[in-house]
Design brief:
Layout: H1 2-35, H2 40-45, H3 48-68, H4 70-87, H5 97-125, H6 131-186, H7 208-228, H8 231-238, H9 244-263, H10 265-272, H11 279-301, H12 306-334, H13 341-404
Helix pairs in contact: 1-5, 1-6, 3-4, 3-5, 3-13, 4-5, 4-6, 5-6, 5-13, 6-9, 6-12, 7-12, 7-13, 9-12, 10-12, 11-12, 11-13
Length: 405
C-alpha cells in the first residue's frame, strides 16, 4: 500500500505539472493572438483541433495504454506538450492560423494521453476492495486538476506580462521537462500493460454499464459547455459590460472553486447518503442539476439583475456539477477491472471529449440564435438526457444485482 501511495503521488505530481501548462498555454494563446489583432472567431478556431483530437486520442489512448503501458502514454503526452510549447516559440511571421491549430492539435493529444494515464493509473495502485479510498483518491486527483487548470490561467497571464510570449513558453516547457524526468525515474515500467495483447477492436466497450455511463458523461459535459464556453463570457462582456480581465479572472476562480468542491465531494456525498456512490447517486444529483439552468434562465427572463443571477447560479451549478463529475470519475474506475481499466477510461473520456466538442459548437449557435437563455435551455435539455441515461444505468445495475443474488 505504501508503494502504491508513492506511485499515486508521482502520477498526481506529473498530472499537476501538465495541467498548469495546459491552462497556461490556453490563456497565452487567447491573450497573445487577441493582442495581434485576431478576431474572436479566428481565436476560437485555434482550439478546434485541440478538442477534435481529444476525441480521437481518448478513443485509441486506452488501447495504446494497454499495449505499451500507462507510464509510456504519460511520457509521450508530456513530450508532445513540450513540443507543442516549443512550436509556438517560432518567429511571429510563422504563427499562421493553420500552424497554431497544428500546435494545439499536439497539445490536445498530449492532454488526453496524460489524463487517461493518470486516472487509469490510480486503479492500479489500489488494493482490491478499497472502494472508499479509491473514491477519495480519484476525487482528489480530479479536483486538484481542475483547480490547477484555473491556476494555470493566472500563471499564463502573469508569465505573458513578465516574460512575454516566447519567454513564458520556454519556462513552461522547462517546468514540464523536469516533471517528465521525475516520473520517468520514479514510475514502474509497464504500468497498466495487459498480460494479453489488446486488440484494436476492443477500443469500443461491450459492457452496457460503461456504455450508458459514457452516454451520460457525453450529455453532462455537453450541458456545461453549451453555456460556459461561448455564451457566458460573451454575455458577461457584451451585455453586463465586464472587462476582459474581469471575465478571465471570474472564470478562473470558478474553475478553481469547482476543483476544490470536486476534491471534497466524497465527504459531501457520504454525508447525505449511505454506502458508496452508484448509478442511483447520479440520478439524484443530475436531477438537482437540471433545476439550475432552468432557474437561471427564468430569472433572467423575469428581468432580475443578470450579474447577481449568474454569479449565484454559477456557484450552485459548480457545486452540484462537481458532485456529478466526481461520482462519474469514480464509477468508471471502480467498474473496470485491472486489465480493462485503460481501455474503459479511454472510451469513457472519448465520450467526454465528444460532449465538450458538441457543447462548444452549440454554445456559439444557441447564443447567436437565442441569447443566454437559449444556451441555458439547451443545457437543461442535455442534462435531462444525462439523467435518463443514469436512470437506465440504475435499472441495469438493479437487474444485475437481482440476477447475481
Amino acid at each position: 500500500m505504501e508503494q502504491g501511495f508513492r506511485h499515486y503521488l508521482t502520477v498526481t505530481g506529473g498530472y499537476w505539472a501538465f495541467t498548469i501548462t495546459d491552462g497556461a498555454i490556453r490563456m497565452l494563446v487567447v491573450l497573445y493572438f487577441h493582442q495581434l489583432g485576431y478576431s474572436p472567431l479566428a481565436i476560437a478556431m485555434l482550439f478546434l483541433f485541440y478538442e477534435f483530437f481529444g476525441i480521437v486520442t481518448n478513443l485509441v489512448g486506452g488501447w495504446l495504454g494497454a499495449r505499451i503501458g500507462l507510464n509510456r502514454c504519460m511520457h509521450i503526452g508530456m513530450s508532445m506538450q513540450i513540443g507543442a510549447l516549443l512550436m509556438l516559440t517560432v518567429p511571429e511571421a510563422w504563427l499562421s492560423v493553420g500552424y497554431v491549430m497544428a500546435a494545439q492539435a499536439f497539445s490536445g493529444i498530449a492532454k488526453d494521453l496524460n489524463k487517461m494515464s493518470a486516472k487509469a493509473g490510480v486503479k492500479l495502485f489500489m488494493p482490491d476492495q478499497s472502494d472508499s479510498r479509491l473514491f477519495r483518491w480519484v476525487a482528489i486527483l480530479t479536483g486538484s486538476k481542475n483547480a490547477l487548470k484555473g491556476a494555470g490561467f493566472f500563471i499564463g497571464g502573469a508569465l505573458l506580462a513578465w516574460l512575454e510570449f516566447r519567454g513564458a513558453l520556454f519556462v513552461l516547457a522547462a517546468m514540464l521537462f523536469v516533471a517528465l524526468a521525475m516520473t520517468w525515474v520514479l514510475l514502474p515500467r509497464g504500468l497498466g500493460k495487459t498480460k494479453s495483447r489488446a486488440k484494436f477492436s476492443q477500443i469500443f466497450s461491450r459492457d452496457p454499464q460503461i456504455n450508458w455511463l459514457s452516454a451520460a458523461r457525453f450529455f453532462l459535459f455537453g450541458a456545461r459547455d453549451i453555456w460556459f464556453v461561448v455564451g457566458l463570457p460573451v454575455y458577461l462582456q457584451s451585455v453586463l459590460g465586464w472587462t476582459f480581465t474581469q471575465v478571465g479572472a471570474f472564470l478562473a476562480l470558478w474553475v478553481i472553486g469547482y476543483g476544490f468542491i470536486q476534491g471534497i465531494a466524497p465527504r459531501v456525498i457520504r454525508a447525505v447518503s449511505t454506502g458508496e456512490p452508484g448509478a442511483g447517486t447520479l440520478v439524484v444529483w443530475t436531477g438537482v442539476l437540471l433545476l439550475l439552468p432552468v432557474g437561471i434562465a427564468l430569472s433572467l427572463q423575469q428581468g432580475w439583475d443578470g450579474g447577481v443571477v449568474l454569479i449565484v447560479g454559477l456557484a450552485l451549478f459548480g457545486i452540484v456539477f462537481a458532485m456529478n463529475s466526481a461520482t462519474h470519475s469514480y464509477l468508471i474506475v471502480a467498474w473496470s477491472d485491472h486489465d480493462s481499466v485503460s481501455m474503459n477510461v479511454g472510451f469513457y473520456y472519448m465520450a467526454n471529449a465528444g460532449g465538450r466538442l458538441a457543447g462548444t459548437i452549440l454554445s456559439g449557435l444557441a447564443y447567436q440564435q437565442h441569447g443566454m437563455e437559449g444556451c441555458l435551455y439547451w443545457s437543461a435539455g442535455f442534462i435531462l438526457i444525462a439523467m435518463l441515461a443514469s436512470m437506465k444505468l440504475d435499472r441495469l445495475n438493479s437487474m444485475t444485482t437481482r440476477c447475481s443474488s
